[in-house]
Amino acid sequence: MARIEPTEPRTEELDTRYGEPGATATPWREAVALLTAAELFWLTTVRPEGRPHVTPLLAVWADGALYFCTGAEERKSRNLAANPEVVLTTGTNALAGGCDLVVEGTAVRVTDEARLTALAGAWEAKYGADWHFEVRDGGFAGDRGNVAVVHEVAPRTAFGFGKAPYSQTRWRF
């Protein structure tokens, strides 16, 4: 990808109220490695009447942001049209060991053809040939002919929940 990775978050805070003695803040570079490797994310959007909507999806970490795609008529797309604030969550879902991550931000639609082409390559590199996309009409065209819209979520705040030992780290951007 052509863009340069942004600098580290402004703050990296360990909240000792939610950790074990001896726990340390998770470095942002470790969180980025986990975001890069994660296969499944849970996207939380807000329905027009204010109720949350949560759905699993694939996402790619590139150039300091998470990217996801969805059909233009799907519930999450309709939610984003009314309120672009989102949360993306990933992790181990294990009680002991690993780290779960929560990224809060604003979903911004990506329509630039060069950027979409680079992201389509990133999707296929991460998820394999079954996730090959052509860029068409400002989005990703799959083998069924539908065009999915692509969104970028640059972290505004992120949290890491370590579990060996238990810790809670907050990063602010």
Automatic annotation (TrEMBL):
GO terms for cellular component: cytosol. Residues 1-23 are annotated as: Disordered. GO terms for molecular function: coenzyme F420 binding; oxidoreductase activity, acting on the CH-CH group of donors. Keywords: Oxidoreductase. The keyword Protein biosynthesis does not apply. Residues 30-135 form the Pyridoxamine 5'-phosphate oxidase N-terminal domain. Residues 1-18 have a biased composition (Basic and acidic residues). Pfam families: PNPOx_N (PF01243). Gene3D superfamilies: Electron Transport, Fmn-binding Protein, Chain A. The keyword Oxidoreductase applies. PANTHER family: HEME OXYGENASE HI_0854-RELATED (PTHR35176), PYRIDOXAMINE 5'-PHOSPHATE OXIDASE-RELATED FMN-BINDING (PTHR35176:SF4). This is Pyridoxamine 5'-phosphate oxidase family protein. It comes from Streptomyces liangshanensis. The lineage of its organism: Bacteria, Bacillati, Actinomycetota, Actinomycetes, Kitasatosporales.
